[in-house]
Write a structure and sequence with these properties.
By secondary structure, the chain is of the alpha/beta class. It contains 16 helices and eleven strands. Strand 7, helix 10 and strand 8 form a beta-alpha-beta unit.
Length: about 425
């Protein structure tokens, strides 16, 4: 079960496919607009009654991209999530009644845990970000950096409690409907900690090592690569463009929205041309576009097929796109827009695969062009990216989850 944008959903198609191959029957429970991600994977689909893109394009949703601060965006998103929680919960309960075990992403954790408890089902977390408090770094939603162990950990608890409070009213209603005693947000979180509720994280320890102060039951597995189908080709027109000249640079902001996509698109094109580079521009939810023989605008295409054929990737540093770029072994120029993207951007810089990150508000051709030149001409970035990709290719992020499922089905088994 998961909710959010495409990046919050796609990795679970790969996890689900891997679990199907391990002998499980798997259903992906998420927004109906993502039903086209699972055909051919063996994973079933149950649609939740919320369209996240439609919500972001509503009057209320458009206020999010007008927020000029990270805190403003987080507050806006929390309000949006609170207003939609009841509808999500109804869909989750309907899906859960046909299931034996619930695997819950971080975006639906408090709701899903209440559903599992109410129906007497075993459950575990499957998170794409390191959401648990730690002294080793600040909460990812706060961006990059560290405020010292004590403050980092306190802030992590604060963020987690804030998430619990977003869903508190709907959780109360769920528990009441199931005949369970009321539990407040603090008590609900402590109960999961006391039980060492298992959480598996779908990123590589090579990118974010498991924090040494995490409690028992919190594991870092490795990436869950999205299911992109078998022998799925790129569009013919894109193939023609790729073959008509040197490797282009991919530019995309995923599900991030921007106040003026026309202006930003123009800056991106100017930067690419100033750097002497061709570009593949992904529309995304922000509506980017470009024209000219040296530019190609695309919709959704499998990153696993496109990224290995580009010179570098310029992206919003969402968890999924960050992973796709690392898997392809190509340099990056991260442009973190919101939420945890600053955290992942900092990881790319620390890993030596990106020359630095650029803020979207100040994304001008004069700043982007030099970063593109560095990323595409300094061999160290590509060398580091390729070395890391080779090491990521040896990991199996699905196997730890498959073993954990066996332990849930057979308590007491090591």
């Amino acid at each position: 079960m998961t909710a959010g944008s495409r990046g919050d959903v796609a990795p679970f198609t790969g996890l689900g496919h891997g679990l199907v191959r391990a002998g499980h029957e798997v259903t992906l429970v998420t927004h109906g607009c993502f039903a086209d991600l699972v055909p051919g994977s063996g994973v079933g689909f149950h649609a939740l009654p919320v369209d996240p893109r439609a919500e972001l394009e509503s009057v209320r949703g458009r206020r999010l991209h007008r927020s000029v601060t990270g805190a403003g965006k987080i507050i806006g998103l929390a309000g949006l999530a609170r207003s939609l929680a009841g509808r999500l919960a109804d869909g989750m309960v309907a899906a859960a009644r046909a299931c034996d075990v619930l695997l819950l992403s971080g975006s639906v954790g408090p709701l899903g845990y209440a559903v599992a408890e109410g129906l007497g089902l075993p459950s575990m977390g499957v998170h794409l970000q390191p959401l648990e408090p730690t002294g080793e770094f600040a909460p990812p939603v706060a961006g990059a950096g560290s405020w010292g162990p004590a403050v980092n950990r306190a802030a992590g608890y604060g963020v987690n409690l804030a998430v619990e409070r977003v869903f508190a009213e709907t959780v109360r209603e769920l528990r009441e409907g199931f005949g369970l005693p009321p539990v407040g947000p603090v008590a609900a979180r402590r109960a999961r900690e006391r039980r060492a509720w298992p959480v598996h994280h779908g990123f590589s320890p090579l990118v974010v090592p498991r924090p040494r102060d995490w409690r028992r039951g919190l594991d870092v597995c490795g990436y869950w690569w999205p299911w992109d189908g078998e022998d799925t080709p790129l569009p013919d027109a894109l193939e023609d463009f790729l073959g008509a000249g040197p490797a282009p640079v991919f530019v995309g902001l995923g599900s991030a929205t921007v106040p003026d996509p026309g202006r930003l698109s123009g800056e991106i094109v100017r930067a690419l041309r100033a750097a002497g580079l061709r570009g593949v521009i992904q529309r995304g939810w922000g509506g980017l576009c470009a024209e000219g023989d040296d530019m190609f605008t695309v919709g959704e295409v499998p990153h696993s097929l496109l990224f290995p054929r580009v010179a570098a990737v310029v992206h919003h540093a969402g968890a999924g796109t960050t992973a796709a770029g690392l898997r392809a072994g190509v340099p990056a120029v991260p442009v973190p827009v919101q939420f945890d993207e600053g955290f992942w951007a900092a990881r790319l810089v620390a890993l030596g695969v990106a020359p630095g990150s650029l803020p979207p508000g100040g994304l001008r051709a004069e700043r982007l062009a030099p970063a593109l030149v560095r990323a595409t001409t300094d061999p160290a970035y590509r060398r580091n990216a390729r070395d890391l990709a080779e090491r990521l290719g040896t990991e199996d992020g699905v196997a730890p989850v498959a073993r954990a499922l066996i332990r849930l089905e057979h308590p007491g088994r090591p």
